[in-house]
């Protein structure tokens, strides 16, 4: 009896050793995946953070069109997340990441070649192809799959594996932020200032984007190098997705009523919205003539006179396509929200299927929440990608004898996330829970995040008013290297104002705090509210509305409200519109979460206690 017991104990011990050994074997490919993510995020943010400045100063686009093109770039990156997720469900994550990474690397090579100083004017088309097509497609294939592929290497059968997954997601979050800090803290500054004694100022973009290309090539080689040690799970197929489409179309013609038709119309409006937004932005960009006029130096003019400028103070122009795009986007979102607040329109299919009408109703019921929160929050968030850096570029950027790039200040967002996440988790949430006698719920965090996002844009508007009232910086070092019109010899351009650019840390940090409150909660909501079979699809839709649809709206709003000349236009209006829409989003949130059957469908998800953890990656800077 004793011997049998000892034998069982030895077998258990061996089993534990095998489990531990298995985890140790997988550690090396997991490290490789973390390095891949670090390299990819470093490359992405180096481009996304400086693309607007490159378009306006090197390719001579107007600031409003440059901001719109930057929004289109982000829109396309998130758009491809849905095909990327569906492709992974079909052929598996490994093959999808290999294909997307290769396309991404080719795109970065195209961009790196196109920004060589002597070739910039003639290869503008290659820059557009590389960034708007190849890099966008590659990002969309990697973004929704790389974290899950890393978790696949660990597995979730045993409790030890699940604990190891939590550690992996923490390290994954850390790798993202390391990439963000390198991109914004170092490479973005080299685009406009070069690297003293190493890289001439004229070749700053080729050095930064070339470094990104090298990192992306390295990422692909690292990922391929660990192929023999990966655990590769097969694709699950697209059956549930096809059945959702069948439920939608079947319900329109078999008793679903006007709500079924409205839901279908909303889905059909989305691709039209994209097509018109792309056409509006790209046609406007191609129709522009190069800006070669010289800025008149305001420091040489009497102080009582308004400084003459090259660019007009309004936005990029109000055209028919902008109106159509705004109408289509608004219709798509309104139709999808109204139709799916109550999903009783979903009708049972005649033939029996494993994914039933109840599952379809639960899936459609998650859509209004995903749309309202993501649009309301990310319109404010998107200010961080173009408006905040542009505002900083016309403030005092000097640090010693060099100038910072406006995109550098994005590090305040990443730093706020790193600093405040543990404070919220360890101190703030437990304190609030003790005071109110119940845990802080997911929905309460979302509301607080939307309020903080609105405050961030109001703070930016107040700061912009202070900037416009400040005097110009006169003297040889007064021209901004990242504002419109800067010349290669530094003899002309836009004057900085005598107010420190470090003030822009405030709205950047406020956006970071808002991210902590909103984005992880939306990841959790999308997971909890969706049936098991379509969780990947709903997460992809969450990313789609988070980055793609919101950036499509931002592209349209930029065309209408973003001033080409910040000193004569009103960037304040752009910020206030974003803040107002966030407040409207809060009101709509309360409506949809308290509307009859819909409230019952999603309330378990929004009332869930959520500890904001690092597993919710990446929402430009995307963490």
Automatic annotation (TrEMBL):
GO molecular function, a single term: transmembrane transporter activity
Domain of life: Eukaryota
Segments forming a coiled coil: none
Membrane-spanning segments: 67-88, 97-117, 123-142, 168-187, 207-231, 252-276, 324-343, 364-384, 404-424, 445-463, 502-525, 537-562, 574-592
Keyword Membrane: yes
SUPFAM superfamilies referenced in this protein's UniProt entry, alphabetically: MFS general substrate transporter (SSF103473)
Subcellular location: Membrane
Entry similarity comment: Belongs to the major facilitator superfamily. Proton-dependent oligopeptide transporter (POT/PTR) (TC 2.A.17) family.
Name listed for the protein in its UniProt record: Protein NRT1/ PTR FAMILY 8.3
Taxonomic lineage: Eukaryota, Sar, Alveolata, Dinophyceae, Suessiales
């Amino acid at each position: 009896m004793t011997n049998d017991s000892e034998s069982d104990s030895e077998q258990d011990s061996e089993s534990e050793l095998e489990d531990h050994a298995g985890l140790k074997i997988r550690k090396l490919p997991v490290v490789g995946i973390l390095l891949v993510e670090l390299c990819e995020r470093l490359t992405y943010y180096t481009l996304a953070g400086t693309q607007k400045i490159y378009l306006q100063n090197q390719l001579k686009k107007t600031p409003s069109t440059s901001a719109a093109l930057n929004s289109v770039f982000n829109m396309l990156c998130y758009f491809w997340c849905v095909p990327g997720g569906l492709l992974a469900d079909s052929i598996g994550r490994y093959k999808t990441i290999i294909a997307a990474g290769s396309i991404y690397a080719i795109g970065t090579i195209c961009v790196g070649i196109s920004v060589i100083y002597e070739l910039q004017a003639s290869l503008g088309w290659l820059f557009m192809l590389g960034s708007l097509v190849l890099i966008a497609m590659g990002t969309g294939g990697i973004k929704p799959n790389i974290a899950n592929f890393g978790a696949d290497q660990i597995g979730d059968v045993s409790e030890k594996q699940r604990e190891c997954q939590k550690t992996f997601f923490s390290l994954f979050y850390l790798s993202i932020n390391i990439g963000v800090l390198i991109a914004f803290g170092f490479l973005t500054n080299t685009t406009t200032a070069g690297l003293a004694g190493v890289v001439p100022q004229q070749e700053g973009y080729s050095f930064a984007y070339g470094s990104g290309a090298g990192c992306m090539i390295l990422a692909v080689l690292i990922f391929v190098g660990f192929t023999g040690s990966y655990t590769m799970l097969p694709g699950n197929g697209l059956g549930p997705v096809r059945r959702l489409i069948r439920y939608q179309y079947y319900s329109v013609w078999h008793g679903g009523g006007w709500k079924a038709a409205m839901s279908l119309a909303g889905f059909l409006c989305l691709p039209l919205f994209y097509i018109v937004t792309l056409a509006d932005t790209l046609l406007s960009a191609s129709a522009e003539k190069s800006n070669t006029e010289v800025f008149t130096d305001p420091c040489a003019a009497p102080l009582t006179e308004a400084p003459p400028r090259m660019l007009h103070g309004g936005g990029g122009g109000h055209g028919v396509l902008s109106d159509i795009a705004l109408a289509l986007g608004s219709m798509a979102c309104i139709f999808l929200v109204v139709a799916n607040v109550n999903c009783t329109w979903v009708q049972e299919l005649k033939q029996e299927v494993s994914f039933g009408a109840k599952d379809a109703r639960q899936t459609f019921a998650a859509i209004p929440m995903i749309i309202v929160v993501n649009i309301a929050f990310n319109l404010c968030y998107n200010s961080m990608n173009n408006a905040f850096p542009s505002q900083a570029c016309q403030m005092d950027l000097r640090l010693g004898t060099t100038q910072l790039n406006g995109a550098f200040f994005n590090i305040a967002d990443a730093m706020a996330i790193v600093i405040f996440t543990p404070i919220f988790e360890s101190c703030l949430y437990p304190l609030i829970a003790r005071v109110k006698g119940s845990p802080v719920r997911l929905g309460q965090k979302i509301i607080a995040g939307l309020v903080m996002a609105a405050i961030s844009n109001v703070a930016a508007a107040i700061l912009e008013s202070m900037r416009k009232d400040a005097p110009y910086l006169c003297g040889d070092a007064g021209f901004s290297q990242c504002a419109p019109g800067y010349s290669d010899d530094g003899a002309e351009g836009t004057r900085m104002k005598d107010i420190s650019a470090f003030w822009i840390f405030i709205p950047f940090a406020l956006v970071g705090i808002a991210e902590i409150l909103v984005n992880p909660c939306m990841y959790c909501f999308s997971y909890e509210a969706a049936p098991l079979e379509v969780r990947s699809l709903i997460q992809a839709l969450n990313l789609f509305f988070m980055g793609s649809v919101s950036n499509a709206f931002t592209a349209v709003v930029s065309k209408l409200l973003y001033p080409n000349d910040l000193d004569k236009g009103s960037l304040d209006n752009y910020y206030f519109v974003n803040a107002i829409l966030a407040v409207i989003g809060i009101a709509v949130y309360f409506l949809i979460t308290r509307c009859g059957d819909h409230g019952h469908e999603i309330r378990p998800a929004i009332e869930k206690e959520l500890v904001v953890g690092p597993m919710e990656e990446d929402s430009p800077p995307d963490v």
